[in-house]
Specification:
The protein has three helices and four strands. It is α/β, with parallel strands linked by helices. It has one domain: Ribonuclease Inhibitor (Leucine-rich repeat, LRR (right-handed beta-alpha superhelix)), CATH 3.80.10. The protein has a four-stranded parallel sheet, with no helix packed on it. α1 links the parallel β1 and β2. α1 packs parallel to α2 and α2 packs parallel to α3. The mean pLDDT is 92.
């Protein structure tokens, strides 16, 4: 599977954690859309962990997922050293610092 669009599905942080664990094992997803799910900090930490394992990802849409400052900070750690990601959508995230 190359593209995974789970936007507007009411996925909780636990659901994102399970999804990211599976993605890390498969390594085949190239485009990921989790927008409009509101999974917050715990979910962003799971995405950050998955980024380290999913080096084929080229685009991620995390718009309107309630990441906040701490979630974006956690996500940025996962982005370090990720060489293939070319698009990150954080539209309508409240980032203050």
């Amino acid at each position: 599977m190359k593209s995974l669009d789970l936007s507007f599905n009411g996925i909780s942080s636990r659901g994102v954690e399970d999804l990211c664990e599976a993605m890390a094992k498969s390594g085949s997803v190239v485009h990921l859309n989790l927008s409009q799910n509101g999974f917050g900090l715990a979910g962003s930490r799971a995405v950050a962990r998955a980024l380290r394992a999913c080096q084929r990802l080229v685009s991620i849409d995390l718009s309107e997922t309630s990441l906040g400052d701490d979630g974006v900070a956690a996500l940025s750690i996962g982005l370090l050293g990720h060489g293939t990601l070319s698009e990150l959508n954080l539209r309508q995230e409240t980032i203050l610092s």
